[in-house]
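Handout, section B. The chain below has 528 residues.
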Amino acid sequence: MLVCNIIAIILAAICVIYEFRRQLMMLQQNSYRNERYNRWLSASQDTTSTMRLVSGAAALAALSTLSIPMVSMGLVAIVSIVNIFNLAGKKYKKPLVMTNRAKRILGVMLALAALPVAGVIVFCVLGHHSLDRAAVTALLIYCFSPLFVLVANMLLKPVEKHINNKYYKDAERILDSMPDLRIIGVTGSYGKTSTKHYLNRILSEKYDVMMTPGSFNTTMGVIRTIREYLKPYNEVFIVEMGAKQPNDIKEICDLVHPSIGVVTAVGEQHLESFKTIENVQRTKFELIDSLPADGLAVINDDFPYVANRPVSNVECIRYAVSATGAAQYTAEDIQYSPSGTTFTVLAPDGTRLPFTTKLVGECNVSNLLAAIIIALHMEVPVDKIRYAVANIEQVEHRLNMKRTAGGVTIIDDAFNSNPTGSKMALDVLKMMTGGRRIIVTPGMIELGDRQEELNEIFGEHIASSADIAIIVGAYNRDAIVAGIENGKNRIARLHKVDSFNEAQQLLATMLQPGDTILYENDLPDTFK
């Protein structure tokens, strides 16, 4: 019987470890913030999932049959094995990254879990009881695993603050040692990552440039870039600045002190945490408010909550593609094709500068315009700017266009869809008339109280822009379908699937040479 008990304890412990890693992954995807993790728990109903309820019922049943050890241990073992197979077989779009912080949290979680199990084992040994109680305790820990994540993260908060302060001061020291470094901040509800890449490519024609890599757009991401990537010989440092709540951008600016700031957009993104677009505006303009008197603000008037925000503390250049009334720089004569885009930049003095790029979409022209303005301000020769723009590579998952060997055009806009960007992507799709136009999308997220309304509007745009619409998953399905069915001039035929794998299988049965597929957004694991 002792061997059976030990086996049941080991199986339950393995089950707990797998579940702890999954919960830690979700905490990581929610920026290690307990309040955001709690919102995910509530929205996903993870605390009342089928396997958690089954496991809880099995634990209670095992407690009621402790007088029959084989029955109680059999229940624990069977449920643990099922959980292990389910958890071990899951594939995630954004798996857990075992950073030092993640290791610390997991270590504390395991230590907290070990305490009650060890206590029960000691009680059983001293009282000459069966060890089946320890196995049941381990299974109950699986049932309450979110609590262990929250407590471990809370306990480590002072430790993380101390570690972060040490890294912050080291980053400050490095920046202080580079007084001639020109620092450019880039922020916006959308477009900031693409603008950062384009600016990096263009300025590299004249300067030695470093930019924050990937999505390193938080304070700690910027600190890591400074400590690990920034070199003494770099002349320009481009800092992407993201925000999930007020003061996030101010915190980055207080560290890097940018002299040039770009606001690419203020829109309905992250309304779940910001609540109002006015809060989004105030937060994005923390970058502009931080600039020195001799600095430069470059802001996008195509967005009403950028255009209506006065800037008086610093020289301000406004640019636009559509709302050109008050803009000093505009883009005109925009022409798209499967091979890219041609457009003309109109400068304040009336100069017209023609450009060709591999990129497509009005949003990319807008992002390029911001980068061109800064390059001109920093005296990069026009011919070098034109050469760089023509050779800029598409940023992965951001309106990235490519052709397959079978003659199908793929527009990959799978990164973080938003109301403005999705409309622009559909405008590009609508222009692709060489075959059928297909969109694959799960809709948009983090839109707060306007989630359903904006996804329904998205569906209305789909109705007249795509020949075939494949709606993935249930998260936004009803709203998008309602929009498609109510859309004016509807041409889209509708398909509903439960996963991207199912969408791919459906595409395999219908694709023909000349077709164009738009992949618009790809929800992370927290929105499954």
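Note. The mean pLDDT is 87. Compare this with the example in section A.
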